[in-house]
């Protein structure tokens, strides 16, 4: 197999770009060099010589000696223009921009097929963990049943600090930003957008489903309160932002990104700080657990480096699950067992629940545990408003609803509805 030399044009010299530059210069065996770096601010003081930089992207895109474009900027729209032009010019591309990839997946797939050049993006999902490559290759011939994991290091870092050091949310977020774990716009992390974009990409490689964040339920951790953490501790749970895709008995696919109570017996319970953790469950391979750093300069740079290394051998994603056209589709036709806390009782739509198992009503804080149809959550955003927190219970998906003759009449007798 050919081991070709790579000449790289790098867009972006932030946290990850600098990390990649340092890693490349300490890994001579890769036979890969960065010829030019395109940056936005020419006047910013940097540690390497000015002749390495340019503000004109065409210098990289139109340079015939550059055969690989590495895109590491935080502007999704500008990133798409760069990647599109690079692919059209016959250059291989490596990117870490999950928002750009998730929003333009169909067009990027078509560009790869038309111009027959690879586009790799391992760093877009779980930083140092090789999740996409494993889903593409190892699980290619295995019937994957479930993907479940912590895929945003920033929110996991924040939640870890809240639980272990009892920090307030804003202080924990500030620590995440200072450590370089949070996005430049922190709401991308804490509101769940980042994890939702990653799940969109993972769905394509795990189940062959092309979807955007608008096709499944998602939220972040901004509404999680101190009271929620107290309840979790009383039940000996932790709280994690969990992305999940699971085949249902109907053959369709349930997918969501939601906070969840996690038990000590769950592998995800022991994933702390900026680490990511992923559990895969196959029909024949049973369960696998992956854990690795999900944020930071060098962990993300290591995934970019892995893609660059793969390009030396002309590696491409084959998208076998997409090409197989298995017919599996997303659905909201399933039930979820959830914990809901509110600062005012009127914010809960009690009639939406199939049944309520626990109910605690206090002066300025109320919470319940009940079962609700996912479609009702998809159609109404009352559970996303300020003062309302939704957290999945362990083993949250409920496929077989058995009415216990306690639902409506019992709620009426209890004065809940």
In short:
The protein has 417 residues and is of the alpha/beta class. Helix content is 33%, strand content 25%.
Describe the structure.
The strands form three sheets. Strands 3-2-1-4-5-6 form a six-stranded parallel sheet, with helices on both faces. Strands 8-10-9-7-11-12 form a six-stranded mixed sheet. A four-stranded antiparallel sheet has the order 14-15-13-16. The N and C termini lie far apart (68 Å). Among the domains are: 6-126, NAD(P)-binding Rossmann-like Domain (Rossmann fold), CATH 3.40.50.720; 335-413, 2-Layer Sandwich (Alpha-Beta Plaits). It is 33% helix and 25% strand. A hairpin with a 4-residue loop joins strand 14 and strand 15. It has 16 helices and 16 strands. With 417 residues, it is of the alpha/beta class.
**What is the average of the pLDDT values?**
90
Sheet with most strands: strand arrangement: 3-2-1-4-5-6
Q: Please name the CATH architecture of the domain at 6-126.
A: 3-Layer(aba) Sandwich
Number of helices: 16
What would CATH call the homologous superfamily of the domain at 6-126?
NAD(P)-binding Rossmann-like Domain
CATH topology of the domain at 6-126: Rossmann fold
Principal-axis shape? globular
Helix content: 25-40%
The CATH class assignment of the domain at 6-126 is Alpha Beta
- β content, as a range? 25-35%
Structural class: alpha/beta
* First and last CA, distance: 68 Å
The value of Rg in angstroms is 23 Å
Report low-confidence residues grouped into runs of 5 or more: 403-411
How would you summarize the topology of this molecule?
Elements: E1 6-11, H1 15-25, E2 32-38, E3 53-54, H2 58-61, E4 68-71, H3 76-88, E5 92-95, H4 98-103, H5 105-115, E6 119-120, H6 123-126, H7 131-137, E7 144-150, H8 153-164, H9 169-178, H10 187-190, H11 193-207, E8 217-218, H12 226-234, E9 238-247, E10 253-262, E11 275-282, E12 286-293, H13 297-311, H14 320-324, E13 335-342, E14 353-361, E15 366-373, H15 374-379, E16 388-398, H16 408-413
Parallel strand pairs: 1-2, 1-4, 2-3, 4-5, 5-6, 8-10
Antiparallel strand pairs: 7-9, 7-11, 9-10, 11-12, 13-15, 13-16, 14-15
Helix pairs in contact: 1-13, 3-5, 8-9
